[in-house]
Design brief:
Elements lengths: L2 H23 L14 E7 L4 H10 L4 E6 L5 H12 L3 E7 H6 L5 H6 L3 E5 L9 E4 L7 E5 L5 H5 L3 E7 L2 H17 L1 E2 L2 H4 L1
Helix pairs in contact: 2-3
Length: 196
Amino acid sequence: MSAASAAARTLAIVALAVCANAVADSPAPTAGARFAATSSIETAFTPGDRIDNLIIAAIAAAKREVLVNAYSFTQRSIARALIAARKRGVSVQVIADSQQAATLPQNVLGELAKGGVTVWLDANYQAAHNKVVIVDADAPNATTITGSYNFTFSAQWHNAENVVILRDNRDVARAYRDNWLRLKAKATPWPAAKAD
């Protein structure tokens, strides 16, 4: 092996070692994070499955906190479950897409605000298209629900939709809660005038 080849090889090894140390010293990323499959996983699909009832049951089981990301939110039965949770002392907050809130006259956001639920509007993206329910993220029985299912009558009765319900996995619930908190930091509160 020539001296130039040996020097190049040594330089490549040093570069790899520096990169490996830089990666090891970097904080763990949240995007694309992997979590142990320690929970029960349930799937549901419309038409056919009563996704609305699965969501309502998860909200009814909440002890401390329910956080929601909603794109379209017109389904009154889910809204009533959130208000009931708030009335029994659970912290309940919703982040909704601001454009959908403005253009869907049948949205339930005003009802939620009147019922004591804290409502936030997200106008920071072309669409705040998350559909997520996070229940008791710090509890051993933390539940995360996500999928294509909008909180609407149409999603339940007319559309082909899906959800995945991850129970008993705090790490997943905390990752979703962290994302919820990042979105909330840029969201605006529901106007008090609209709650009347």
